[in-house]
Amino acid sequence: MKKFVGVDLHKQRIVVCVVNQARQVLTSARFTHAESIKLAAWLKALGSFDLVLEATASYEWFVKLVEPLAGRVLLAHPRKMRIIAESTRKSDKVDARVLAEFLALDMIPPAH
Question: Is residue 112 part of a domain?
Answer without folding.
Answer: no
